[in-house]
Amino acid sequence: MFSFTFAPSYLFLAGLGGPTLAGGSVALAFANITAYSFFSGLTMGVDSICSQAIGATNYKLFRATIRRGIILLLVTTLPVFLLWINTERILKLLKQDEELASIAHTFLLYSVPDLLAQSFLHPLRAYFRTQSKTIPLSVCTGIASVLHFPVTFLLVSYLFEIKGIALSGALSNFNLVIFLFIYIAFFEEKLSKDEKVSEESYE
Length: 203
Fold this sequence. Notes:
It comes from Brassica napus (Rape). GO terms for molecular function: antiporter activity; transmembrane transporter activity; xenobiotic transmembrane transporter activity. This is BnaCnng41610D protein. Belongs to the multi antimicrobial extrusion (MATE) (TC 2.A.66.1) family. It is a single chain. The protein has one domain (5-201). It starts with 5 loop residues before the first helix and ends with a helix. It is mostly helical. Helix 3 packs antiparallel against helix 6 (112-129) and helix 4 (87-93) runs antiparallel to helix 5. It has helices spanning 6-15, 18-55, 59-84, 87-93, 98-109, 112-129, 134-160, 162-186, 199-202. The longest helix has 38 residues, at 18-55. The protein has nine helices and no strands. The protein is globular, with a radius of gyration of 19 Å.
């Protein structure tokens, strides 16, 4: 799954040298396979149920599905975390270069907070997509993307180098989650209570 943080991450990784770029690229690929794409696949069920619930004006089921999706992904972060903390060992077993394995391991360790952000972000995207509210989602993503560059630059240049790249990705995704929650809390037109139908009648 493509994230708006990926392209800037590669750009800053390249600026830190060849070995760092190679290790970071392996880490991003490993993260995409073991977590981000996996989370995206799990969220497909949320999309499907939410679309049906919206079509049936069953807003109780709609909200419940979003909540359950978040809980499911939060629970899923545990095995992914256990996998990530053993990345260096796994890569060495696969005969990868030790320096590359160490860099990838460091990157993923500092990307662990992003798992929490993704656990909220995927269901929130489903929340907006299934209601055809693409403009607020795009605007919030755009703002988070613009902020991502200076945040990454500051963390990489003055603090953590490759660790800063990983942390900036997580921070930017948390920013996006916060922006989406702010929109829902203060700007979204509330679903009419009069249009609710019970979950039982939908089933």
